[in-house]
Amino acid sequence: MAQEGTGNSNGSALRGVPRWQVAVLALGVGVLVLSLVPGWLMHSRVVGGEGYRTLTLALNAWQLKSVPVLSLAAVAAGVAGMAAPVPFARRWMAVLAALALGLLLAGLVPLSHAAHVTSVAVTPGWALFVALAAVGAMVIVALRRSPPPRTVLAAALGTLLVAGLGGGIGRFVQLQEAEAVSSHWSPGTYQREGGTATLTLTETTYASGSWSGALQTAGTSIILTADPACPDARGFYHVRSAGGEAILVEKVIDICADGDRTTALEGTWTPAGGTGGGGGS
Q1: Gap between the Cα atoms of 82 and 24, Å rounded
Q2: Rounded distance between C-alpha atoms, residue 267 and residue 250, angstroms
Q3: Could you give the 3-state DSSP secondary structure of residue 67?
Q4: What secondary structure does DSSP assign to 82-146, as a single string?
Q5: Cα end-to-end distance, the chain, whole Å
Q6: Which residues are within 8 A (CB) of 227 and not within 5 positions of it... i.e. 6 or more apart?
Q7: Looking at residue 80, what DSSP letter applies?
Q8: At a CB cut-off of 8 Å and minimum separation 6, what does 265 contact?
Q9: What's the whole-number average pLDDT of the chain?
Q10: CB-based contact 190:272 (threshold 8 Å)
Q11: Does residue 278 surpass a pLDDT of 70?
Q12: Rounded to whole angstroms, how far apart are CA atoms 92 and 176?
């Protein structure tokens, strides 16, 4: 009998919660969970040289160019959903949902940056459109079921405009600054991930195993010359951050020793013994 009473009590508690509040809560938490799924932004880098190579990454809301605009959007959507069943917080639900909606709209703006060796494009992915639909539904339900006072409504509209405009400008500036940086590495000795090979870079020279010579920087790329093994061959490599202090070396063009130097240099390298360091995007 006691168990039956408990079951009835729980059922009554669930039946007492308005369906629209449950729906908004589910949508907000759903967006927060979705933020962990790749597909919010598509990050494509084209590296020129012997033909073109395209490297494409599907980002979630917490990776690279998604941060902080889409990360904040996901958090705002989650908090807005959790505010629905709370009486004293419900009046600000529209402002939080508007913040999330504005930041998500900013994520729709396609961005690009082109240089003489490489270019990058950031475009919206499928998960961003799903999140937009969910947050848009949250806003509609919140305004219809729990109309906020005029001051709160004005704050929501202002937040939507500021978040959308500010988020779009912020994303543009972030990409341009990251791609315009003169180099994505620091002088020092690096070690290949999962191996014992080393790569030493200075402002003017490089050395890795039996390969060594002069080095010049060209934006986010390096030009290798004067290698005794192939003194007439020039190597052109793109160097970018691989997260933290690690760097990723990618060939653009290098005919030295039929590609043997490329095999020795390409890949992910991390600082050896605390020296060196990556940077940039």
Answers
A1: 8
A2: 7
A3: coil
A4: HHTT-HHHHTTHHHHHHHHHHHHHHHTS-EEEE-SSEEEEEEE-HHHHHHHHHHHHHHHHHHHHS
A5: 63
A6: 211, 212, 213, 233, 235, 256, 261
A7: H
A8: 199, 208, 211, 235, 237, 249, 251, 254
A9: 85
A10: yes
A11: no
A12: 35
Express each pLDDT in 145-191 by its tens digit: 877 788 888 999 999 999 999 999 999 998 887 777 667 788 999 99
What per-residue confidence (pLDDT) applies to 142? Answer: 83
Classify residue 219 by burial, with Cβ atoms within 10 Å: 0-12, 13-18, 19+: middle
Instruction: Please calculate the CA angle 181-185-187 and round it to the nearest 5 degrees.
Output: 130
Residue 248: strand, helix, or coil: strand
Q: Which amino acid is at 193?
A: E
- E strand map for 157-256: 185-186, 188-192, 198-201, 205-208, 211-218, 221-225, 235-241, 247-253
CA-nearest of 163, 53, 168, 182 to 122 is 168
Range name among 49-58, 122-131, 159-168 with the lowest pLDDT average: 49-58
User: By C-alpha distance, which of 153, 168, 30, 36 is closest to 98?
Assistant: 153
- Which one-letter amino acid corresponds to residue 268? T
pTM: 0.69
- Separation in Å, CA 99 to CA 158, 167, 255, 272: 9, 10, 52, 44
Instruction: Look up residue 236 and give its two tokens.
Output: 């052109």
